[in-house]
Structure formats: structure tokens, C-alpha cells
């Protein structure tokens, strides 16, 4: 690292605060004198900047405290704006108000030397501001005592609540590792060997909840272990980001004509039978903004079951078809595809759109006829299962692919979808995105729209969890039938489903009961669901086949026979299949084992905690914590995510992607990477 002694004897280090970040570098230089005067006269500026001069008295520990409170991140080696490093009597810092980092050398309690280091930030200052602006939202208000937190500079510790400290109190903990001001409130983080870190409330942005696959290793405060861990994670993340950028580059250079709005879209929206929620309207706007651009869309819409994701998708499909393109809606099950088909047919046929269903339900001759019509553009919208991804299916001019519950598709289907993403507009819908999808959204790698507002009149689902109890089951069934409602009874073993039928019939002889599972014929499956829809059945015994695709307003009770075997997101999805109307819904999750495993207990506890409607996002986060985030490009559920926590890892990944995008665009706009991407895109379009 080359260094040049400069004449500069006095420097300003500006803090990382929202009101300061937007200023250009020239502003700092022009207002240096005013800032120094403010530091002397205005107490509020003491938390916004620090002035240092060669030869002046200064305490090294005090400077480190100030840098921490100014929002600077402690690292081993300074490489970008907003970082500082400390070794011995030397402090390197990269102020946001300077073009290069500086080195400050101490001799006792005096600053002996200040010099500029010949190094340029590895990301542009403007890009760094974008990264800071999209950092994960602080969840400090939700921290719970005993959970693990990640401190940006000191690593993983256990949260021990809040406290107010008095500097003059001689009993103050000897493990104190942070600055203290009289009367100020602090977060208390516990580390190994009794070490404790006191973090001022105003620095909560440096804390995030730890999410990982296993219990994290807790070290003592001090030392360089955490800094080395962060550096290693950042290096590995950079390598991962380079792989991801292949997909980005292909997407960036792919072009298509923009989709223009048509006046008839207002009539289509007015034809919607329900009142749109604010989140629905915002999501529709975000999608339409994407479609108005010339770069293909790849957006994830996340919202609970019944919160209106399908209507949002139908409006996107309508816009695309009006612009003379075809659209496809991909569903994971025949039940869900059938339901989407009937809903879409009712909405679209009034406006002259031609729509078709393509699943195993159709005969081979029907499938051939549909495929032939798709190829010549006679069908505007096709709805189906993975059958529409088959090699014999082609389109006249496909523009939009809507994927409902993308996580339910297998590896081969995902590969086909990955290729499609480089040249098609893709809209993915999910209530509880799996770790991989959730991971991309957190890292800012995919645009996301969240629908969190429930439809008017929607109530939370009362959830009961406990060991199997026949009397409770009998009472729940009788109460639901007394109010003319219907029930789902989940029994996830096909071999014993007949036995369950007999058991329920003896409990409630008057009930009309039917059963479905994945091995019955498609025609029988659809017929049974139609009977359920028309009220001919009181209790439907089913496997997890009902997880997707059922939208029945009269079903307001769910009984799960053995919930210990369900995944968290799966259980949440199943619960979302009831309570679609205005009646209060009840869900019962029983287990038959004498003792639950730790994982099963954690899943059921999380399910009970997420009883309020609109909890799909928090369920996805909790599910990722229990199952592990893993590597987004592989099957491993370990590594750097566990060492630094998901939140910090995602932030590092977002920074790395921004860095690579900036470097590629700035240094080699016609470089090999973009050229390859353009070539790949042309091949995909062919």
C-alpha cells in the first residue's frame, strides 16, 4: 500500500447520518470552517462529526468510540467509505467526506501524524449511498431477551435487554466495551466469559437479529477473530456475486417493447367484485411500472393466502395480452390450476380473451389441440401445471410467465424457469417464500412487492395446539356444522386414510364425509372438490394435497391429525386455506407422539406466535432460521451464513453485486461478460 505524506494537518470526519449522506464531497470542503465552528458551539454536532489535528492532545480509545458512534464499521483493512481499522497506535479511516482514506498515528495521548493513504474505495460513493439506503430495516423494537444478535463491529452475542447506566456508579460491569453517557439507554449484549457490550439505542442500526442453521459460536470481546470472519465472508460473497452477475448481465441486455396501458383496463379493474386493498393497488402500480419499461420484469409478490395476489397477476396478464402478447400462468397442482382457470375465464371472457387449461385432466387429443393453438397464437392465456413447460409446448409470442408458489416446482422445472427469466417477463407469487427466494429478496437481488393488508372483514385464525384429543375434535366438528360451515381434516398417510374416515364417522354420524389424496384419479379429485364447493360435503379428509388451490368461503375449521410432521411454512399455508370469509375460523394442530422433537416444538411454537393474519413474511423468516438459509446457489445449509448471520450476509451480498455491476458498467461496457450475456440472450430468444 503506497502512502504519501500530505500537508494537511487538520481533518474532518463526518458521521454517517441520513441528513449528511446526500451531500456531495465538494459541500464538505466548502463548509469545513462552519462545521468546525458548529463542533465547538453546537452540542448536537458532537454526534455528527469529529475534527482532528496533528500535535493536538487526543485519546485513542475516545477516537475509536467516536468513530463507532458516527456509524463507521470496524474492519481489518479499510477498503471503502465508512470503514475504520485499528492496530496498536494506528487508526485508518475512510471518511465519507474525503476521496481517500487517512492514517492517524498516536504517540501516547497525542496525534503524532495524519497522512493520506493512496487507495480508492472499491465501490463508488453514490453506490455506497444506495447500499446504505436499502440496508435491512432495524428490528430493534422486536428484540427478545435470550436471542442472538449480530453487532456489525463485535460479532454475535446474546441479547440481555436494555439498561440505563450511570458513569459514576463504581459497580459498573468490568466487561464494559462501549461508550457510556449518563442517563442514556443501552442495549446489553452478552459475550463469552462474562463480557458485556453496551450499545447506545441510537446505534441500533449496527444490530441485527441472527439467522442461521445452527447455534452460533460466541467469542469474547476484543481481538480480531470477528474482523477476520467478516473479511473471509466478504471475499466468499464476492465470488458468489460474480456467478450471480451472469444472470444479471443477461437480464440487463435483454430488451422488449414496452407494454402500453389501454383504456379498457379501467373496465377490467372495475369488474373486480371486491374492494382493492392499498397494498394491492401499490403492487399493481409497481408491476405496471415494470411492464412500461423495455427491460423484462422479474418481480416477486409476497402475500398471505387470500390477500389478492391472483387479482394482481390477472391485471398484469390483461395488460400484456392487450399488447398482442401471450401469457402463461403456471401452478404446482391440478387443483390450483383448475381454480385459477375458472376464476380467469370468468374475468377474461367478458373482454374477448381466449383462455385454455393445460394439465393432465385433458385427454391427449384435447392437449394436442391446445398446444397447436398456442403455437399459432390462437390462445391468449394458458393456465396449467408443469405440463406447459414440456418440450412439445411452444408459443406464438409468449410475453409473460406467472408462477404461483414457485417453491413447489422441482429441479428440472426450475432450470427451465431460470432460462426463461433472461428474456421473459416473470411474475412470481408466494405466501411463504422458501429460504432461497426469501434470501434473494432480502439481498435486494429481486424486486419484491409485499401485500400485507388483509381484505376487509378478514379475521385472524384462532389456533389450538396440543396432543390428540377425541373430545376436542368432536366438539370442533359439531360447532362448525352447527353454523352451517365445512371442515378440512388433514391426515397425511394414504394407507390409513380409510381408517380415519371410519373414526370420524363414529364421532359424528350425521356428517357427510369424503376423502381425497394424490393417488386418486384426476377426474375423481376434481369432482370431489366440486362437491365440496357446492356444499355436498361437511368434512373433507385429505392429505397435504389441499395445501394449494382451495378457496372456499364456507370452510372455517381445520383439524390436523399429526402436525409434528409438517414443515412450518407448510402448516402456515394449510391454515391459510380456512377463514376466507367473514366467519371466525379455528385451526387445531394435534400431535400423537408422546414427546415432540425440538424442531417440531419450535415449528408449532412459531405457528402459534404467528396467529395474526399477514404473518407469512415473518413465518418465512422464522422458517429460514429453523431450517437454515444455506447457499442460494447450492444445497449446503452452512458456511458463511452461519458464521456472520443472514442479515449481514445479505447486506454483504447486495454490496458485492452493486460493486460488480458498477465495475462492469464503468470499466468495460462492451466487455466479455456483457457480450456473452447478449449472445446467451439471443440464443434463449431463438
From TrEMBL:
Domain of life: Bacteria
One Pfam family matching this protein: UvrB_inter
Gene3D superfamilies on file: 2.40.10.170, P-loop containing nucleotide triphosphate hydrolases, Penicillin-binding protein 1b domain
Biological processes, Gene Ontology terms: DNA repair
GO molecular function: ATP binding; DNA binding; DNA helicase activity; hydrolase activity
Domain (Helicase C-terminal): residue spans on this chain: 472-625
Residue ranges occupied by any Helicase ATP-binding domain in the UniProt entry: 290-451
InterPro entries linked: CarD-like/TRCF_RID (IPR003711), CarD-like/TRCF_RID_sf (IPR036101), DEAD/DEAH_box_helicase_dom (IPR011545), Helicase_ATP-bd (IPR014001), Helicase_C-like (IPR001650), P-loop_NTPase (IPR027417), RecG/Mfd (IPR047112), UvrB_inter (IPR041471)
Alphabetically ordered keywords of this record: ATP-binding, Cytoplasm, DNA damage, DNA repair, DNA-binding, Helicase, Hydrolase, Nucleotide-binding
Protein name: TRCF
Amino acid at each position: 500500500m503506497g502512502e504519501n505524506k500530505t500537508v494537511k494537518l487538520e481533518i474532518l470526519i463526518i458521521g454517517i447520518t441520513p441528513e449528511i449522506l446526500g451531500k456531495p464531497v465538494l459541500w464538505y470542503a466548502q463548509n469545513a470552517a462552519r462545521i468546525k465552528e458548529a463542533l465547538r458551539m453546537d452540542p448536537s454536532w458532537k454526534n455528527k462529526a469529529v475534527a482532528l489535528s496533528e500535535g493536538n492532545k487526543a485519546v485513542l480509545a475516545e477516537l475509536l468510540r467516536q468513530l463507532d458512534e458516527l456509524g463507521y464499521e470496524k474492519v481489518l483493512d479499510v477498503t471503502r467509505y465508512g470503514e475504520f481499522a485499528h492496530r496498536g497506535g494506528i487508526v485508518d479511516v475512510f471518511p465519507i467526506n474525503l476521496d481517500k482514506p487517512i492514517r492517524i498515528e498516536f504517540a501516547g495521548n497525542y496525534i503524532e501524524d495524519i497522512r493520506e493513504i493512496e487507495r480508492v474505495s472499491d465501490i463508488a460513493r453514490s453506490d455506497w449511498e444506495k447500499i446504505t439506503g436499502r440496508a435491512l430495516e432495524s428490528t430493534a423494537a422486536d428484540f427478545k431477551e435470550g436471542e442472538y444478535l449480530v453487532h456489525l463491529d463485535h460479532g454475535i452475542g446474546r441479547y440481555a435487554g436494555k439498561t440505563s447506566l450511570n458513569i459514576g456508579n463504581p459497580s459498573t460491569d468490568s466487561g464494559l466495551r462501549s461508550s457510556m453517557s449518563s442517563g442514556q439507554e443501552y442495549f446489553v449484549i452478552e459475550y463469552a466469559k462474562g463480557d458485556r457490550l453496551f450499545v447506545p439505542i441510537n446505534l441500533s442500526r449496527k444490530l441485527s437479529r441472527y439467522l442461521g442453521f445452527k447455534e452460533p459460536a460466541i467469542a469474547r470481546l476484543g481481538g480480531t477473530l470477528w474482523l477476520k470472519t467478516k473479511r473471509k465472508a466478504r471475499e466468499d460473497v464476492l465470488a458468489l456475486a460474480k456467478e450471480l452477475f451472469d444472470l444479471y448481465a443477461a437480464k440487463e441486455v435483454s430488451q422488449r417493447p414496452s407494454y402500453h396501458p389501454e383504456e379498457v383496463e379501467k373496465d377490467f379493474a372495475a369488474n373486480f367484485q371486491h374492494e382493492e386493498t392499498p397494498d394491492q393497488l401499490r403492487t399493481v402500480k409497481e408491476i405496471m411500472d415494470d411492464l412500461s419499461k423495455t427491460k423484462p420484469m422479474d418481480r416477486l409478490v409476497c402475500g398471505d393466502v387470500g390477500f389478492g395476489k391472483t387479482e394482481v397477476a390477472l391485471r398484469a396478464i390483461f395488460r400484456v395480452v392487450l399488447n398482442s402478447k401471450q401469457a402463461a400462468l403456471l401452478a404446482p397442482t391440478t387443483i390450483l390450476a383448475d381454480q385459477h382457470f375458472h376464476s380467469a375465464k370468468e374475468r377474461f371472457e367478458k373482454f374477448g380473451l381466449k383462455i385454455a387449461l393445460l394439465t393432465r385432466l385433458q385427454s391427449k387429443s384435447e392437449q394436442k389441440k391446445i398446444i397447436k393453438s398456442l403455437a399459432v397464437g390462437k390462445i391468449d392465456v394458458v393456465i396449467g401445471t408443469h405440463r406447459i413447460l414440456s418440450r412439445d409446448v411452444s408459443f406464438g409470442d409468449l410475453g409473460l410467465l406467472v408462477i404461483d408458489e414457485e417453491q413447489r416446482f422441482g429441479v428440472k422445472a426450475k432450470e427451465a424457469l431460470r432460462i426463461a427469466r433472461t428474456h421473459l417477463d416473470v411474475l412470481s407469487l408466494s405466501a411463504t417464500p422458501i429460504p432461497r427466494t426469501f434470501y434473494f429478496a432480502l439481498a435486494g437481488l429481486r424486486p419484491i412487492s409485499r401485500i400485507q393488508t388483509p381484505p376487509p372483514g378478514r379475521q385472524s385464525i384462532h389456533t389450538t395446539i396440543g396432543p390428540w384429543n377425541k373430545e376436542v375434535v368432536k366438539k370442533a366438528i359439531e360447532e362448525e356444522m352447527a353454523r352451517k360451515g365445512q371442515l378440512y381434516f388433514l391426515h397425511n398417510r394414504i394407507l390409513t386414510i380409510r381408517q380415519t374416515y371410519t373414526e370420524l364417522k363414529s364421532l359424528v354420524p350425521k356428517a357427510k364425509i369424503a376423502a381425497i389424496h394424490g393417488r386418486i384419479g384426476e377426474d375423481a379429485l376434481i369432482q370431489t372438490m366440486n362437491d365440496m364447493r357446492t356444499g355436498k360435503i361437511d368434512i373433507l379428509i385429505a392429505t397435504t394435497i389441499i395445501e394449494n388451490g382451495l378457496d372456499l368461503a364456507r370452510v372455517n375449521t381445520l383439524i390436523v391429525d399429526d402436525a409434528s410432521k409438517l414443515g412450518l411454512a407448510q402448516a402456515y399455508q394449510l391454515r391459510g386455506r380456512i377463514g376466507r370469509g367473514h366467519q371466525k375460523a379455528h385451526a387445531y394442530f394435534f400431535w400423537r407422539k408422546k414427546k415432540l422433537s425440538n424442531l417440531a416444538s419450535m415449528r408449532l411454537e412459531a405457528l402459534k406466535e404467528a396467529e395474526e393474519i399477514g404473518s407469512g413474511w415473518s413465518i418465512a423468516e422464522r422458517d429460514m432460521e429453523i431450517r437454515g438459509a444455506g447457499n442460494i446457489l447450492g444445497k449446503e445449509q452452512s458456511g458463511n451464513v452461519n458464521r456472520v448471520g443472514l442479515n449481514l450476509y445479505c447486506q454483504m451480498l447486495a454490496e458485492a453485486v452493486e460493486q460488480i455491476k458498477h465495475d462492469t458498467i464503468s470499466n468495460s461496457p462492451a466487455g466479455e461478460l456483457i457480450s456473452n450475456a447478449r449472445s446467451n440472450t439471443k440464443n434463449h430468444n431463438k
